[in-house]
């Protein structure tokens, strides 16, 4: 598996990234260690986490994932130098009072303090890719559809970049990125960085899957023209695209008890729990099977083979799931499959946007 360069940065990563948001909630520390060991042994050099994790977010598991990864790194001498580690600073609270006391802003001082705390939890001297988890601006994300021009202004983008620049100059961060961003946000971050000699964003981490192809509606052009790499998260749409909910639904008696959309009501209240999302997932499952593929194979192969995607973030709860997801790397999709995928999208659009 060849590595790819992230934007103009000096980071080269595998086109599959291990997502870790289940560590500390659905996944115990011992199982997380097994998954990390297996991922590294299989050649994956890219691990993504966040100060907010585990998910679903709650006070009791805030920071738990970074702590687990830090403990694993401490127990595996030599592993750190083989990895590109990405983490994220949470944006404004969004109803989570355990994040900076519920602050509606993310100041430059907050960014620097959060980075220092992540470094301690991860037990490392440098974060390879440091990302702003969601915008300080009030923009539609996590299932929202419409921008409201009456938004309350927070810390300006320039000030956020200055804080990131402080971290880069101090050697605490190698490259910076964004997450859950819009075309405007990407352009503004890049333009201000170039005007003021501040760190240029290398990546944008946004949701991208068969149920959410909104990246293709303008953001992909921005990323392509500005040479900013897309990190695609939730390629299986919280498990909807594995086919495991097709017959049972999300809450039926036969629903998989350990799966996140069955187990966590808070997850079902998000975009993944929409009836339209499940209906579309069933259509994609049927299409995959008609072509002799599993739903998981088709959904992951779609992301793995997209020119838009630099690296696809896969989240797993077991070594077996990890191996299954990695095995899809060699799977291609014919022109006929892609045409039929587009037909479903034209009819059902992006229900998990």
TrEMBL record:
Residues 15-344 form the NADP-dependent oxidoreductase domain. Keywords: Oxidoreductase. InterPro entries: AKR, AKR_Detox_Biosynth, NAD(P)_OxRdtase_dom_sf, NADP_OxRdtase_dom. The lineage of its organism: Bacteria, Pseudomonadati, Pseudomonadota, Betaproteobacteria, Burkholderiales. This is Aldo/keto reductase. Pfam families: Aldo_ket_red. GO terms for molecular function: oxidoreductase activity.
